[in-house]
Amino acid sequence: MTNNAIKVPFKVSARTAKLIGLENFSTEEGAVIELVKNTYDADAKNCIIIFDLKKKKVKEKNKKGEEVEVEKFDKENSSIYIFDNGVGMNDKIIQNQWMTIGTDNKLYEHTTEGGRVKTGAKGIGRFALNRLGMLTSMTSLPNLLEVIDEESSEIEKDSEEEPKTKLIENITNTSFDWTVDWKDFDKKGATVSDVEAVLSAKDNLNLKQEFLKRFSSYPKIKKLLEQIDFKSGTVIEITELNDEWNEDKLSKLFGNLEMLLPPEEQNDFNIDLFLLNNLQEFGNVKRAYYDDYDYKINASYCQDDGKTLKVEIYRSELDLDALEKKYPEVFEFDLMKKSPYRLEDFKNEKIELNIPIEKLTSEEVDKNLLERIGKFDFTFYFLKNTISDDKEDGDLKKYPYNSINSANRKSWLKKFGGIKIFRDDFRIRPYGENGDDWLRLGERQAQSPGGAGQRLGGYRIRPNQIAGTIKISRLHNSSFQDKSGREGLIENDEFELFKNIIREIISLFERDRNVIMYSLSELHKIKNEEAEKLREGKEEAEKFKNQDENGDGNTKTNFSDGTDYSGSAKKLADAFGYSKKKTKRKMMKLDY
């Protein structure tokens, strides 16, 4: 037998391809979030998610064995809709990119036409549709159509190559319908190439009118749709749902969507979530912006800027007016005479620091690793939620705190607390959620549990009093790679160094607060000592007064400090003056 070598192609079973895709979406929430990211990559300004959850009555036996009628979730007739007003997809994009499993389009084309950095790179996001339900139908109205370039085709009509195409404005409002039955992937012996979706085209689609027609009986949704421009966009309908959805699950999804985007005041991407049988429950997804903080730290690192970390510290914990008028002695401490702890520093809007990244830590930093970290931005908030440690002696408070709303802070921290990582404006889970202390701040605090005012150098922040966002990018932080299940980043050497840098930035805040609160605490001790002396002196003065009134005015009284005074208020006042001078000398000695 002649041994003729031939090339044999690989074949992938349809079921295997489907399972590989589904591994990336372990939860139904994650699948919805992936589809939201797709709308962002389509340059959409609006993404609307609508759940139409149905119930059905079924008969089943109760504990007594009696047949009763109960309501159950109706998976077959429930639907999930996802609308967006992005650029849409024409037939060529659907065939060549949407229908290609593991497409590398986002891997090489990092940014969208609108300038956004694309959120995905693996090309398996469409399996999120299968994770949610067994049937998917999609209608997409593209802003551009890809058509054959007649002029080029005429010139190259004898060529065997595919005719050249060009993009034209979609003035005919041509849309494309795409449907797939994901059960086809489970057919015995089927390969990926055996599974087909149905694609068709139609002209003159008014996307907004289609939406309004479908949801005209829901005033809240209708009002929102009327405000949005739908010149192009996509609507996806998922049916025969795989999971039982309820309001608790939707509340969790809504909360995750709130944390999906970084907390900024202005944004160009809005998300709305609706449940048709309870429109009042959800609605517009607000970002986690909050301006009631004690401290805010902005840190920015750019390799091109001399490998320098730029830090801004905003202090908002103390009442500046009270600090200046009622606690002026604290600025007489040697420690508080130095920048950035002087009164004039407190009056500035912020403290600015420029720190060479290599000097941020006392440990030696691997320069090659540092080179691979890439640029990043870190915003960090400290919010104490009680002021129970503010001990008072009469009107003498230890710390001149600004007032806080403890309930609001606790509620906000419960929902948005923790330090989260955002890549290209989308959160990477699970960092900072559900008590995830990925920086191990709790361990640091347990090893040094003292408060900010107890001793110098020992203060460590508790993880339940902070919120923060770290911004990285696929373009500048290529060493940070996703784990296979898209839940977190691979724990490589670069990421370990990155965590150390973030902890050192947090240490800058800890030192700043430690110096200030310790100084105020020491002042409080001194003033308490002085107040105690004055109280004792007042008692002795009262004794003296009573004795003087009952005697001849020359009574000798032996006071508690052993000094012998003879009926003279002036001598008593001199003793108090001595006490004040002694106090001032003690204040001047406080240093670090």
From TrEMBL:
Region annotated Disordered, chain positions: 533-569
UniProt lists compositionally biased (Basic and acidic residues) regions at: 533-548
Q: Name one Pfam family in it.
A: HATPase_c_3
Name the InterPro entries on file. HATPase_C_sf (IPR036890)
What is the name of this protein? ATPase/histidine kinase/DNA gyrase B/HSP90 domain protein
The residue stretches assigned to a coiled coil in this entry are none
User: What ranges does the record list as Polar residues composition bias?
Assistant: 552-566
Species of provenance = Sphingobacterium spiritivorum ATCC 33300
